[in-house]
Structures
1.
Amino acid sequence: MIANLFGTEYLVLDDWLAVATKGLSDESAARVTEEIQEHYEESVATLVAEGYRPGGAELETLSRLGSPRRARRGYRREYTTERDVKTFQRYQEELNKMSELGSRLHWREMYVVGTFLLVLFASFMEDKKPEVPLAFPVCMFSVVIGTTAGRIALRLSRRQGRARRFGMYLAVQFLLIWIMAAYIAAISFYTGFLGPFLIFLLFLLFLTIHQYRFWKKIRPILNK
Amino acid sequence: MNLKGTLPALILNTLAGEPKHGYRIAQEIKAKSKGVLDFKEGSLYPALHGLENDGFIESYREMFEGRPRRYYRLTEHGIKQLEQERDQWQQLSGAVSLILEGP
């Protein structure tokens, strides 16, 4: 920030960039800084040629760039953030572990336990105890089929490109999560508890949009 | 006027002729619309990056008068996308005109 004789403070380019790139990964922040600096220099030069004073041209350029907070929202949607980088590293480790057929079950594959508890809870609430013993083998069977198919797919994708392999990993994750959603939907309709299912469905939709945006940002990096 | 949702299509159209840098793209959109389509220039770069991630445009660095600049150009995929956007816009604007200008 700079201040004039009357104490009024003005935003300068460095402040604008600091706010706009907050939370972006180092690579993305460098790209945004490079682009905005070029834009800024070009704009100031043009405005000075049109008759602006240099200081006035700088302020006008910053005003035309708009709010850095608003710009940051757009940047975070399209450029990789620090959080994306951490998520990517974590997923990469998980992917390697899941590719090993003999490795222990990942926490996402343990949804069968949670689903079984839900079945148990719903059955007791609705006094439908006879269905409980049936639910467990059905859940177990689907989880074994789902996870084994996923692991085989990941193992087979070892020879493919990084982007395709990572995409397959995300697809396997989604398959497992949406199988869980299907279970909960079935239980909800069976027992009449629609509220918890709708909340869960909203959460899954949010997660799907979030993961799709993450994939869109990560894919070009993996393709490099 | 609010450009919500239409900025990517306007960018693709601006890049139809030749590769351009970010500042010029912004100025061309404003100039061609005679100032009606005004937007904050900071929002241009996320839109450009989104189009690049989708494979519709690609960027490269080149020196101009001793200064490095990032230029953007349409890809084959982007040219097809632009044709689709134009067709969709023709249909939409035609339908809206029929309603607004009707009896």
Note: Residues 2-78 of chain A form one domain.
2.
Amino acid sequence: MRPRLIWNRFAEPGVCPFKIHWPRQMVERGQGEVMDETEWLIAREAPGLRRYARALVRDRDRADDLVQECLERALRKRHLWQRTGSIRGWLLRILYNVHINLAKRHRNAPQTTSIEDISIAQPARQFGHLQLQEMARALDELPDLQRETLLLVVLEGLSYEEAACVLDVPVGTVRSRLSRAREALQSLNLAEVRPVALRPVALRRVK
Amino acid sequence: MDDHDDINDLDLHGYVDDRLDPPRRRAVEAYLDQHPDKAEWVRRCRLQSEAMRALYGPVAEEPLPGRLASVFKPRRPARFPGLVRRMAPLAATLLLGCGLGWSAGEFLPRADATTPVLRESVSLAHAEAARAIVADHIAPSSELVRRPINWVEQASMVDLQVPDLSRYQFSLVGSQVTATTNRSQAAQLSYRDDRGRRLTLQIQPRIPEPDPEIVTEKRNDVRVAYWADGPLMYVIASDLPREETLAVARGLNRSIRKMPPPETEEEFGLAERVRSFFQIRG
């Protein structure tokens, strides 16, 4: 949005009648420090980006490389964010493109992370360590496109339309990838060890 | 016997991902009652989803490593923010034109203007809680609760989640979009704990312009009006003359923000004409 000079009504006495409407607001960070509003919005999404990146490449350092490249690119190009969608979708799209480019470059590089190395911070209450590793293994065996789509919807809670936008494919493609990924995961039996009651997912993003 | 012929795989995926509207969700639930094989499929999908979140969800809770945090560099407020760099020639001329004396104070954040309003408003709202409380307990996922949060999300482009305070024994008892003391709007969530103590939360997008400046111009022989509303930009084109365009645009802006229509039909007196004259020139 271009800044524009507007007539500031009949200005109060002592106030400049001309006021430049800055396209970006500054956000206070305490101690008199400020942060560009877009930068603040980007920083806010960084933890979520790390989560998706870790699920994509599994290796901690490579995932953080990915996020760093994504954040730097996003900050460089922040004026290109059209504010037509959520900033999260825009960032995930950048992250995904960075991932695709890096994957092309490293296509022949040996895969260093074995499934057993995946660090599982703290096994959740209803799943054991082994079950989570099995889940990781099953995800790993999915074709890349299906895995990337499934994780966007399930892990990041994106709607099918948002996921389509991130992956730059039609919504129908998202649905069919999701459907094939879930069919492939059906053989996975997570419930045997500790059954969990079917319940609606309570802690989800609202949108 | 089967009343749910129209339920397809798409609905089941939507059900697993919690993306159906309530009537459709009830239809799918009824369908699942009759089709145990599909219910088992749904149960497995949900378990897998939870396992995926359990596997990678904790990553987002980790503190940001230093090299990522250092990408963001907070700084002291600049006398002339980044805009001047991009628009240097024009901005320099304009700044000279309107004088340098107003610089720093004018460009600093306006956040302080809104927080006192909200502080006053939330204390008043908390005091008259009876109106805000709609039920003994409402589920955080219900439509009623989502509405105010969706409103804030739309206005700020920031994704939010209805806060869960159950570990502090507070449960949600009310949720509404409410008017604050300066007639702007805020989302209000009311909580109550098991001892009857109450907690009121108000959320407001930080860049509220209750009455944004609307600019009109003629473009390709069409009357165009545009205005910025926080992070949003509106543009309308119409066959109406300027005054009517402005009136419609003002009504539209209030309506899309779910505000009541203007109280009095506006008259296009001298002041209004002068003002719109300057707006068009701007």
Note: Strands of chain A lie at 5-7, 18-20, 26-28, 34-36.
